[in-house]
Design brief:
By secondary structure, the protein is an alpha+beta fold. The protein is 53% helix and 16% strand. It has seven helices and five strands. Strand 2 and strand 3 (34-41) form a beta hairpin.
Length: 213
Amino acid sequence: MTFCERIRKNAQSFMRANGFAFKKGIFYRIENDMAFCMNLEMPTGTVYSNCFVLPLYVPTEFCYMTYGTRLTVGAAERDGGAGNAAELAGEWMSILSNDIFPCFQTITSPDAFFTQVSHRALFAPHECHISDVFVQRLRLATAFYEKRYSEIPEICGEYTKVLADAPYLTSGCKKIYLDEVRLFQNAMAMNDPEKETLMAEIIRKTGRACFGL
C-alpha cells in the first residue's frame, strides 16, 4: 500500500459520509451532470490534492483536471508511518471541509459552473488557470446542454477562432476539439428530441469513460 493509499484509507469514512464514491484513484460525487472530484498524489516528499470539476456533458474519453486547483496537504515523513498517514489524512479532510466543499456548494448548475470558469473565479482564492480554449469548450457544451441552440453557431465560430490562435496546442489536441465543434454544429440539423438524445449519450459515455458508470 502506497503512502497516498494509506491517507485515502484514513479518510474513506469521511468521504463516504459526504457522498463521495471512489474509482480509478479519484473520489467523486455527481450532481447536476457534473462530477466533483479530488485525488491525492506525491511526486516527491510532499502530498498534494487535485480538486476539480469534470462536466459530464463535455465529450471526453479520459478524466482530466483542467477545471481545478492543486493544494498542498503536507510533507511526508521519511518513514511514512501510520501515524504520519493519519495526521495528513486529518489535514486533507480539514482542507476539504474548509476550502473545497464550500466551493463545490456554490456550483449549483452547469450555468453557475460556467460563470465561475469564465470569470476565472473557480476555487477562488486558490489558483485555477484556465485558458481561453477551455472556457470556450465549456461554453459550447453548456449552451447545448441548456438547450440554448440558437447560440451554438456563434459560439462555434468564436471557439474555432480561439483554437486557431492557440499555438501551445498540438495538432492532435486541436483535431479533437475541432471534432467537438463539428459534432455540435452537425447536431443543429437534428430535431430537439434527437439533440436531447445526443446529449444524454455524451453524458453516459463520459461517465463510463471516467468513472466506469
